[in-house]
Specification:
- Chains A, B, C, D, E, F: It comes from Mycolicibacterium diernhoferi.
- Chains A, B, C, D, E, F: Keywords: ATP-binding, Nucleotide-binding.
- The structure is a homohexamer.
- Chain A is of the alpha/beta class.
- Chain A has eleven helices and nine strands.
- In chain A, strands 2-5-8-1-9 form a five-stranded parallel sheet, with helices on both faces. Chain A has a two-stranded antiparallel ribbon with strand order 3-4.
- Chain A is elongated and about 65 Å long.
- The mean pLDDT of chain A is 84.
- The interface between E and F is large, with 38 and 34 residues.
């Protein structure tokens, strides 16, 4: 999809310059950062600036190479080949963004290899062809370094052809603005949630697998926008989602009570 | 099935408000709670209040994605596609409730992912189509946090889009009423069973994998309604079901003898 | 098969009353007890009393769901569906008895689940249909709690819908009668074997995986009925079957010599 | 094959009486004993005495149920069913002897189960039929208790229907006669080999996985019969076969030098 | 592809003489060396000197034998055999170079075996033929001894038929020239990067899985050639690619700051 | 292939007599010895002396039974059965030599079993036939006792039917002659290499998985015959092949420098 309206993105470091240089060189890009920190938004902004189509795929551990490359389908009694999203990006010279690839399967990373190294081509075994990547094609993959990651299954020699960009959660003022705008809540509610999130993110020795993300704040704020009181929304969309452990849930609840304004 | 008669449900906490807010937002809901505590009843009540169809599937560890999405079947020599329950819910805008998903297999959780995150769509690979969820579709899954759970195989980024609600066993007065009404026994028998259940639930350092649920009490009471004496019914439907260990069975039996009235 | 002649069964506890109540309620029954203690005989007696057909399947660890549900077979060049024993029981409203399910495979227990819980239905995937259990259908499964058991792979929520009955070896007088009648030996030989069996069953710190069952006594007595001397029969059908360990075999032999009358 | 000439077998214990009684009762027999001790010869002798056909299969760990039951084969463009040896024995009422089943695979033992227990039938899944065992059919399996064995994968309830017979190496005089006759060597050579074998069999704390069997002695004597000198024959057919370990080979060689006559 | 222009390669040791002797003898060659050190370039130079075609395949762990040997493909409704790159090399007498085989799968190494030992032939199972290698065919495989390698799955008897050549990173003057020429940067930038790389390569007790390769320097310099400042280029194409560990990234960053000229 | 010219072989022990006796008896032979010590040559010499055809197969761990027995192939649209090498040997009464079976797969050893024991037959499952071995057929397998070996997957009862022969590296004078003749170098070069090999073979506490074989010496000498200097040839064909470990390579290099004449 071609992003018609410029997505809101404010650069924190040199990530924009690095992405542009990599794009001019045709080098694949590796985005590192935690869940829900805005990696997708960054890629959307870059695609818009470069005037290229963006094809995004949300990775999951059961994704197969056919999900990316394409497959034969039965339509009206005939077998028809249908390009997968990666194949379309390769043909059209689009940016292909493989979002949050956690523990991707081997046969998925294999189709990425020849596109990431100097070959810049996609073998489509089922068709018996090898597609050269069209001008403008660019591979972007993101992952959370805190997880098992596809990077471990990329050949070192392939990984050494990636350009890496590291992103974190946005600074409080940006995050506040995003939460307020996307969930439709007033700035003060957004401010409370961002402060709560940062308190959780900065916990020493946290037992949480994942901290509260910008995305989670938007969802919490969304419940408030639907009329739920703030405390219930935080409990349902943050506390109980972050942990199943009774002790952790209680401790998080106390922390929430300390940050939230008294009703 | 559209629940015509309002199911009996009395709210204990803010669970009703949270569910309604999530439903308005179209966010998926995660119900946490022990086996047989009334999760299904809660969902039935919510569906009735919202005036939506409810499609319930009892999860099991051998469930495949085809059980949810559908499959081609041979009917009279022809191959016919038959929608699975999830696909029907997606098409019709119903509430889809996946009950007690213990250790669900990977390919099952995969079909849930794109419905749970911002895509709200169901890829039907066999048909080569991707169905957008109809207005009103809502995903609800339940699990027992004490078990290995599907949650462990949900991507963190997907889990962060769920709204979580935690339920427990109903308070004694509600449980008494349910047992008496559903099994057809008098209130005093129901009262004895509820007291027995709560004694078992509150055992310190219990060796049981699972405590006595509301559902188990209904079954026990059902044997009494069939004419079996109370002690035999408790032994057969509670004690011997809760454990295979001879020592545990003996200890439970003594506990039962202490709670039950002398014949 | 409909048992025409009433099988000999003398109740020890309340097992008959419990079974009848469960049958009236349509609840599935779980028989616990050691190998060869008479579980099958009990079910046969119950089926006879209730006037229902009994379909028995001896479980084994390589049993597949197709063995229970049915399969397509090639007959004279055509593909014909043949109901498995479980499907027949579901259609005909018979008692289905799955005997000694040790380490049953996952896909076997899966077909049992929906019949054991409130659904009382059997999905026949290959036919694309779901059969409701006919009036009178009842599921009975037996297992030996000393083993790995199917129970471990039943969902807790399903297990909580079973009524459990525990059986042991019959009291000496009953066992004596059964051995004498079934093997065709005189009462004194049966008495010696029952005493020997009880001595083995009561060994402190026994190294045996399984004790001598009623069934084993019948087989031993059968060899005597064929003219073999008692000591050789006991050695061949009991001692050498119970253990492969030379030391255990020797110790058992000495125990036998102490119990058997001097020739 | 019907053994026309009575095989030479001299009873050591009550093994003949036990086998006959089991045969009259139709009970399956379990032969225990080390590799090459004469188990096959015993079964051949029993079959001859009983006047029944004997069908022998040498078990191996890659044997499949199809090897026993039969399979469809392409013959001249047509698919033809060919009975396996077990199916033939079941149809013809022969003795079926499964020799030295080491680590038999699951699907092999499964086809044995219903023939070994009270059902006495063979399900032939590929044909969709269940064959009742013809009068006279008897199942005999042998194994070496020193190994992993099929017995471990037989259900205890099935094992308890077997009659067990334990065999060892024959006494020296019998073994001498067998070696001399089968290899065609003079009695003094046979005597030396039997003495050597017994020395090896009685080693304290032997590092050998398997001792020298009667069969090995026959092969060694056979090399002598072909003109090889005794020392070379013993080295080639016994010492180097019994072990790959250089130290063990040397120690065995010294033991051989001590037992063999000086050239 | 026949390399028309002589690739730039300056010999460091006797690697050229060894390769020529092996080529005359028809012996397979094993190139050892780290990722991105110039192994491919060396093979290209040798192929050019010998006037032979070079067919290069970049190995990856999901490569199958069909990727090397060929497969049947559906083209316009017909099944057509398409030679794989190895088969082409065997038929045409080319040099076949299997680059960076990390953890190659078993069925891949199997097709190499008969070409590496005295047979010099390629069995093409799918066609039922065995192709003798044409005059001039030579097998070259490379690997990084620091990794799990295909060599571990080559039979020792096969490995003993290889001629081994060990390569390292080029000396600084050569590496500088290569970086400057291939990335299009000035010599001083190339010099800084080469010095930085050698500092990283010589770290004591380095926590890096892989050091900075010549190839990585070319990519870094490429970003500079696209206008990115040197520090950002080094961070994106070297530091963040070499490690995901925050501490290691920080330490590498400090090292970079020490080597790079102050802006 | 029938070896027309008598291969050069000088007996070291009684291996020739043992092989002849085994051949007369039709007993299978097991050759033990290190990689490249001349096992193949010995078998070739025996086949020539006995006037029998020799069919040799170089075993590898991915060999399947179809590689030995045969398979159906598509030729010109028709399915044609093609005998494998073992089947040919069985039909023609040839010596079948399975060379260096390292870690052979189960289904490979299974086809050997019935040929190695008293049955002397080859079941060809795909054809539904069992071939009796023709007069003169003899099975010979070789292995390196230092490795995991097929012997571990042969049944003990089968192994006890093999005649074992142990071979080592040839004595220096023989090895010198072989190296000089096969590689085409002068005796003094061969002498140096043989001395070097024996130094390596006799290293105390050697870290090498495999020592330098006669075959390796021939290859090294071959590089010299192609004009490479002796030191480079030894480094490339011996040192770097024997180890990937830098320390071991350095130590071997010093050892080589001590043995080789100063240039």
């Amino acid at each position: 999809m071609l992003t018609l309206q410029a997505p809101f993105y404010r650069a924190v470091n040199d990530e924009v310059e690095v992405f542009h240089a990599a794009a001019r060189r045709g080098a694949p890009v590796l985005l590192k950062g935690p869940t829900g920190c805005g990696k997708t938004r960054f890629v959307e902004a870059m695609a818009h600036e470069l005037g290229r189509d963006l094809i995004t795929v949300a990775g999951h551990e059961d994704m197969t190479s056919a999900d990316l490359v394409g497959r034969f389908l039965l339509k009206g009694g005939e077998t028809v080949w249908v390009d997968g999203p990666l194949t379309r990006a390769v043909r059209e010279g689009a940016i292909f963004y493989l979002d949050e690839v956690v523990e991707a399967r081997q046969d998925t990373t294999v189709v990425i290899h020849p596109l990431a190294d100097h070959r810049r081509e996609l073998p489509v075994d089922r068709l018996g062809i090898t597609l050269p990547a069209a001008e403008g094609f660019q591979l972007v993959i993101s992952y959370n370094p805190g997880y098992q990651s596809v990077l471990k299954s990329l050949k070192e020699s392939t990984r050494q052809r990636f350009i890496a960009i590291e992103l974190g959660f946005p600074p409080p003022d940006v995050e506040r603005e995003v939460v307020a705008r996307e969930a439709g809540v007033d700035p003060s509610t957004a401010d409370i949630l961002v402060r709560l999130a940062n308190t959780i993110r900065n916990l020493d020795g946290s037992p949480l697998r994942e901290v509260a993300s910008t995305r989670m704040l938007i969802l919490t704020a969304g419940l408030v926008a639907e009329g739920l009181n703030l405390r219930s929304a935080v409990q349902a969309a943050m506390v109980l989602v972050l942990s199943d452990d009774a002790d952790v849930v209680r401790a998080l609840g106390e922390l929430v009570d300390a940050v939230l304004p008294r009703a």
